[in-house]
Amino acid sequence: MIRVGSRDLPWREGMTVADLLKDLGDPYPYAVVRINDKTVSKPNFDKTPVPDNSEVFLIPMIAGG
Fold first, then answer.
1. Handedness of CA 7, 5, 53, 31 (dihedral sign)
2. What is the CATH number of the domain that holds 49?
3. 60, 28 in Cβ contact below 8 A?
């Protein structure tokens, strides 16, 4: 299992950040996620594995002026 926010989700062998975001079906275009204490940027989502028992934080980008 992995925890994303307050939700527990099933983990599977070989799961990447890109797979997780696809499974969530969240349309927001996240640029950064944090897996435990590691920050991962969007160019690396396809190649970054999500370990079992991880805590994942989806970090929205905020712009202002």
1. positive
2. 3.10.20.30
3. yes
Structure-block tokens of residue 63: 């712009």
Span 5-45, pLDDT tens digits: 899 999 999 999 999 999 999 888 899 999 999 999 999 99
Residue 64 maps to a domain: no
Q: What residues contact 10, with CB distance under 8 A and at least 6 apart?
A: 1, 2
Phi, psi of 51 (to 5 degrees): -70, 150
Helix H segments across the chain?
17-24
What pTM, to 2 d.p., does this model score? 0.88
Domain count for the chain, please give it.
1
Asked if the structure places residue 33 within a domain, the reply is yes
Pairing between strand 55-59 and 2-4?
parallel
